[in-house]
C-alpha cells in the first residue's frame, strides 16, 4: 500500500511489491490467482485502520462540531508527518488510489474505494445532522 501511495497504482510494479515484501514473483501470482475476489491483506489492513480512525474522530459521544474539529485537525497535521517521512506531501491515500483506479482499475478496488468514501461521507452527514438538531448549524 505504501508503494502505491508513494508512487501510484499504475507505476507500482510486481517486482517492486515483491522486493518490498521479500517474496518471489511466483508467490505473488500464486496468491493473486487464488484470491481474485477479495482485496489483498494490505488493502484490508489499511481499510481497518482508516475505519478505526474515523470511528474515533466521529464518535457520537463527542459533540458534533468537536467531531469535525478532530477530523480537520488530523487532516492538517497528517501531511506534515508524511512530508517529513517521504520528502513530499502525498495527500489522502484513499482519494489518491481511488481516483487512479476509478476508471481503469480492478473492480474490487473501485468497489472498496467507493464503499469507503460512502462510509466516510456518512460520518460527516451524521455530524452535520447532529449539529443542526442542537441548533449549532
Estimate the global geometry from the Cα principal axes: elongated
Q: How many beta-strand segments?
A: 0
Helical content (DSSP H or I, runs of 4+):
over 70%
User: What Rg is obtained from the alpha carbons, in whole angstroms?
Assistant: 18 Å
Mean pLDDT: 79
Strand content is under 5%
User: SSE order in H/E notation?
Assistant: HHHHHHH
Q: Which class of secondary structure composition applies to the elements?
A: mainly alpha
How many domains, in number, for the residues? 1
Largest sheet data: none
Continuous helix count? 7
Instruction: Give the CA-CA distance, first to last residue.
Output: 38 Å
Low-confidence stretches: none
Task: Walk me through the topology.
Layout: H1 2-6, H2 14-21, H3 25-34, H4 41-57, H5 64-86, H6 93-101, H7 107-133
Helix pairs in contact: 5-7, 6-7
Question: How would you characterize the overall build of this protein?
Answer:
The protein is an all-alpha fold. It has one domain. The chain is built from seven helices and no strands. Helix 5 crosses helix 7 and helix 6 crosses helix 7. The radius of gyration is 18 Å and the shape is elongated. The mean pLDDT is 79.
